[in-house]
């Protein structure tokens, strides 16, 4: 049996004091119940503070990205080792908001070139994440145009092949299926289709790890739709953006995975 895993992606929200307060509130709501694995991913600058607040909690902390070099002259970057050093358990890699796959309505044209994640950088980041002893959460998903062109499975297969290239030990790997058109839009993917794609994702993982890898769904998960999504056999939990920011909402999403 795969343990369900629900992770909150706080994106570029909350100053450090507020992040610590909300983490503490969530810890109270979660208690020591660990039938579902729970994580939150605050902004880099809040990682250490939130880790401290959660040091006696079952909730793990994760970063929203890592750089693949462990140290050196890389001004402004944060390595997987540094993330681990800040007390983290997880690292999100290849989120669509970093892949340059943003719908143009959601980001100003002038910022698009700065979101340049590729399958190659995702692969390097996955290797660095594993080497640092972190649990990787690799995001994949198609854009609306790709879905409408019938390319969903081909796009995802290529993203997975690129991400996993040359990676040998996939025993801790988590993959998040996040259709780009469902992220932050309120347009959740139909649960049957989300289940189908999560099953397809599993089929793309090398056989030795296929039954073991956890595949989350992400994209407009909320307290009203989480139970339906998480009851699907191929969906092992969720990567949750907006609905993870308020502890009283996020706990409902977590409980829906039980
Ligand atoms: P959302 O974001 O839940 O706000 O749609 C999900 C994500 O980007 O991981």
Kindly list the characteristics that best describe this protein.
alpha/beta, 14% strand, TIM Barrel, binds 2-phosphoglycolic acid, 8-stranded parallel beta barrel, 258 residues
What does the model show?
The mean pLDDT is 95. This protein has helices spanning 16-30, 47-53, 80-85, 119-131, 144-148, 152-164, 191-203, 207-210, 226-230, 247-255, and strands at 5-9, 37-41, 60-63, 90-93, 135-140, 174-177, 214-218, 237-240. The two termini are 13 Å apart. The protein has an eight-stranded parallel β-barrel with strand order 1-2-3-4-5-6-7-8, surrounded by five helices. The chain is 35% helix and 14% strand. The chain has ten helices and eight strands. It is of the alpha/beta class. The protein has a single domain (5-248), classed as TIM Barrel, CATH 3.20.20. Strand 4 (90-93), helix 4 and strand 5 form a beta-alpha-beta unit. It is globular, with a radius of gyration of 17 Å. The chain binds 2-phosphoglycolic acid. 2-phosphoglycolic acid (PGA) is lined by residues 9, 178, 183-184, 218-221, 239-243.
Bound molecules: 2-phosphoglycolic acid
Low-confidence stretches: none
Structural class: alpha/beta
Which band does the percent of strand residues land in? 5-15%
Shape: globular
CATH architecture: Alpha-Beta Barrel
Q: What name does CATH use for the topology? A: TIM Barrel
Instruction: State the domain count.
Output: 1
Radius of gyration: 17 Å
Order of helices and strands: EHEHEHEHEHHEHHEHEH
What is the count of helical runs? 10
């Amino acid at each position: 049996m795969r343990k369900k895993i629900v992770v909150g992606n706080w994106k570029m929200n909350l100053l450090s004091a507020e992040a610590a307060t909300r983490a503490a509130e969530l810890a109270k709501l979660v208690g020591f119940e660990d039938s579902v694995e729970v994580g939150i991913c605050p902004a880099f600058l809040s990682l250490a503070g939130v880790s401290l607040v959660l040091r006696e909690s079952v909730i793990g902390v994760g970063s929203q990205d890592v750089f693949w070099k462990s140290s050196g002259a890389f001004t402004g970057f944060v390595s997987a080792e540094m993330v681990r050093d800040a007390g983290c358990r997880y690292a999100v890699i290849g989120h669509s908001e970093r892949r340059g796959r943003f719908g143009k309505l959601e980001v100003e044209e002038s910022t698009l070139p700065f979101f340049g994640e590729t399958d190659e950088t995702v692969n390097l980041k996955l290797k660095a994440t594993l080497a640092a002893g972190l649990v990787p959460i690799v995001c994949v998903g198609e854009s609306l145009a790709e879905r409408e062109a019938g390319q969903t499975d081909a796009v995802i297969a290529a993203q997975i092949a690129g991400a996993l290239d040359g990676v040998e030990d996939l025993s801790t790997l988590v993959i998040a299926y996040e259709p780009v058109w469902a992220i932050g839009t309120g347009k959740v993917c139909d649960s049957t289709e989300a289940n189908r794609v999560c099953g397809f994702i599993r089929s793309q993982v090398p056989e030795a790890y296929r039954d073991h890898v956890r595949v989350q769904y992400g994209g407009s998960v909320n307290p009203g739709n989480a139970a339906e999504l998480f009851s699907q056999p191929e969906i092992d939990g969720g990567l949750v953006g907006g609905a993870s920011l308020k502890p009283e909402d996020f706990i409902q999403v977590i409980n829906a995975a039980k």
